[in-house]
Design goal:
Elements: H1 2-13, E1 36-43, E2 46-53, H2 55-61, H3 78-94, E3 98-106, E4 109-121, E5 130-136
Length: 148
Amino acid sequence: MIANVQAYWLRQCLGKSFPTRADIDPLYLVAALPYLSLATIQPEPFRVQYRLVGSEVARFYGTEMRGKWVDEMTIWPAQDIVDTHDTYRRIFEQRVPNYGLSLIGWGEREDHVFEFARFPISEDGLNVTHCLGIDDFSMIEPPLGRAI
């Protein structure tokens, strides 16, 4: 799933360091749509706000995230807020995608591993103003409402 989002992001770069928000159409990523998020980055003071959040992302994080700032996600442990904020700051400063593994509690276990990626997007072609995110929870549990 992450490889497909990465390939789409690279195609949309069109010779630039990263695509613009207008270049990204989540409908081209229908299979990944429940796992996608789009965040806006505010540089000063540095903050990140979730603009679009897929249904599986909201389900696994246990809350509606659209319109919320990372630092307002009070149902998350404090360290998760710091780590998430730092991930977006690295993308903002380094201007490159970020890939990783993370843990999430689900069912009766607190240590389910999932893969994620965040891809920078720019409104002006110079500064990172948004991030396209993919959280691949599909190996933990299939999407709600779908058969295995």
